[in-house]
Design a protein that fits this description.
The protein is mainly alpha-helical. The protein has one domain: Four Helix Bundle (Hemerythrin (Met), subunit A). It is 86% helix and 0% strand. The chain is globular, with a radius of gyration of 14 Å.
Length: 119
C-alpha cells in the first residue's frame, strides 16, 4: 500500500467524505470481528483508520470542531490499544466480540458527527 498516494487522495476529499471513509472502515472491522474471519484485513483496517485520523486531526479547526477532534483522538487511542494486543484480542472470541461492539459504537458516533458537518 502506498500510504502517500492514499493520503493525497484522502486529504483532497471533503470532511464529510473523510468521516464516511473512517466510518466505513469501522463498519468493515465490526463485521470481520463479529465473524472472526480475515484477521489480516481487519488489522489493516485498524492501521488505515489510524492514518485517516492522523491526517485529519491536524487540519481540524479547533475553534469550531473541538468535539470532532476530541472524539477522533479518543478513537485513535482505542485503535492503538487494539493494535498493541492484536493477536491476543483477535484469537479470543469474547475480546473479538468486544472489538465488534466498540467498532459499531464508534461508527455510530462518527455518523452523528457527519450529520453535524453536513448540516
Amino acid at each position: 500500500m502506498n500510504w502517500e498516494i492514499l493520503k493525497t487522495r484522502y486529504l483532497q476529499t471533503s470532511r464529510t467524505s473523510q468521516m464516511d471513509s473512517l466510518s466505513l472502515n469501522l463498519t468493515r472491522l465490526q463485521t470481520l470481528a463479529a465473524s472472526g474471519v480475515e484477521d489480516s484485513v481487519a488489522h489493516h483496517l485498524v492501521r488505515e483508520s489510524q492514518f485517516f485520523i492522523e491526517w485529519t486531526v491536524p487540519v481540524i479547526d479547533l475553534e469550531t470542531d473541538m468535539t470532532l477532534a476530541t472524539e477522533l483522538l479518543s478513537l485513535q487511542r482505542q485503535l492503538s490499544r487494539w493494535k498493541l494486543s492484536w493477536a491476543d484480542l483477535w484469537n479470543n472470541e469474547p475480546e473479538r466480540q468486544k472489538i465488534a461492539a466498540v467498532a459499531q459504537t464508534w461508527c455510530e458516533q462518527l455518523q452523528g458527527q457527519v450529520s453535524v458537518i453536513a448540516s
